[in-house]
Design goal:
STAS_dom, globular, alpha/beta, STAS_dom_sf, single chain, six-stranded mixed β-sheet, Transcription Regulator spoIIAA, Anti-anti-sigma factor
Length: 163
């Protein structure tokens, strides 16, 4: 699998996150920092997550995307637009109820590549920060759909006991 990478662009309230390769917990600090930056914006008009080049997303990445989706719906009244053709990722999004907070499109958007798309600075997180981000991400997955609790309750308990 290709190593994970996150590219971003923003312009006057429009935000784009492009996930490519194998996006895992090693990128959670970077992704979380960028999400928090979006939360600090007063005028968010649109958030697009391009997963067209993503091979795999781990549960921590999914939890952080749930955080973004729940926040955008509650605070800005918008659903995130997600573009994805990967059947495995689409199945996961559906099983975990992401269709409740995302508008998911399997068709490739008819737009030009965003000219300001760039790598975001890698965030180096210490182990305690990573543990807290993983814990928050998995709690959000359960909040999104209580059916997810079977999969993540033991992990949450283990992370909470390590605190």
């Amino acid at each position: 699998m290709n190593p994970g990478k996150i590219l971003v662009a923003d312009s006057m309230g429009d935000y784009l996150l492009k996930l490519s390769g194998d996006v895992r917990v090693t990128l959670c600090g970077t992704l979380n920092r960028h999400i928090e930056m979006i939360f600090g914006s007063k005028d968010v008009k649109q958030v697009v997550v391009d997963m067209l080049d993503a091979d795999c997303l781990d549960s921590t990445t999914l939890g952080l995307l749930a955080k973004l989706g729940l926040h955008c719906r509650k605070n800005y009244g918008i659903n995130i637009q997600v573009f994805c053709e990967n059947a495995s990722i689409l199945r996961t999004l559906e099983c975990m109820s992401f269709d409740e907070i995302f508008d998911i499109f399997q068709d490739v958007p008819d737009i030009k590549e965003h000219s300001h798309l760039h790598n975001i600075r890698m965030e180096k997180s210490d182990i305690d920060d990573v543990r807290l981000q993983v814990l928050e991400a998995h709690k959000l997955l359960i909040e999104l759909s209580p059916e997810n609790s079977r999969e993540f309750t033991d992990l949450i308990r283990a992370l909470e006991s390590d605190s």
